[in-house]
């Protein structure tokens, strides 16, 4: 019999909660409805504490130390406070910084407003010609997901200091971009723009990189980058007949439903 995860008791804001040993304190808090603001936490990637917004007080022997909840692992007896006056002040200053870094981000404006922060004392980033429309906080999630999950490494950090931006090398179209759009899905500030124009996906934020899309043979809708489909088709999947692999999700669902109906009365249309 396999043993389940070891459970521990942790304390958040003086209340006790059960947690899996080693899970992040941010996820324990979220699961229990305790609000800790966060921007750079993405379940599919290792936490790396870039945005600093999830800072909480770690309480040990009556002393408090500020630490990021997304990188803090649950262990027996661990105690944190999520909203002390010092933490609130720290987050408020961070929000001012983010309002200057990403002055066009409605996500940041909304989060900051909850802390009473509507203005910034810091110099605002000049946003004309910014391919990310003044919404990027440089959290790096898009870069990491492209590199670590998709294996594309199509984008990266360019320049240094206040001039740092995320984009394709030399701001050129990059054939390494698959056009999967995972970067846009994980971007916490919705900074990344992608537009499908007929048979082409245009990665507007990534130097206008253009990617050919596959047409669904049933409904004629362009729905997935050709290169991605080829990768998907190369994955052995004996449960689905090959013709279904080229269909868009809606037509595929219809075909599968028809197949299930037919197989009930006339025998299976699935291979194997
Ligand atoms: S574009 Fe979005 S995900 Fe990428 S670094 Fe900027 S804020 Fe983060
Ligand atoms: S979510 Fe923890 S530092 Fe960003």
UniProtKB/TrEMBL annotation:
Top-level taxon: Archaea
InterPro entries attached to this UniProt entry: 2Fe-2S_ferredoxin-like_sf, 2Fe-2S_ferredoxin-type, 4Fe4S_Fe-S-bd, 4Fe4S_Fe_S_CS, NADH_UbQ_OxRdtase_75kDa_su_CS, PSI_iron-sulfur_center
Annotated Gene3D superfamilies: 3.10.20.740, 3.30.70.3270
Annotated Pfam families: Fer2_4 (PF13510), Fer4 (PF00037)
Record domain 2Fe-2S ferredoxin-type: where: 6-86
GO biological process: ATP synthesis coupled electron transport
Transmembrane segments annotated in the record for this chain: none
Keyword terms of this UniProt record: 4Fe-4S, Iron, Iron-sulfur, Metal-binding, Repeat
Domain 4Fe-4S ferredoxin-type: 124-146, 167-197
Keyword Phosphoprotein applies: no
GO MF annotation list: 4 iron, 4 sulfur cluster binding; metal ion binding; NADH dehydrogenase (ubiquinone) activity; oxidoreductase activity
Cellular component GO terms, alphabetical: membrane
Name of the molecule in the record: Ferredoxin
Organism lineage: Archaea, Methanobacteriati, Methanobacteriota, Stenosarchaea group, Methanomicrobia
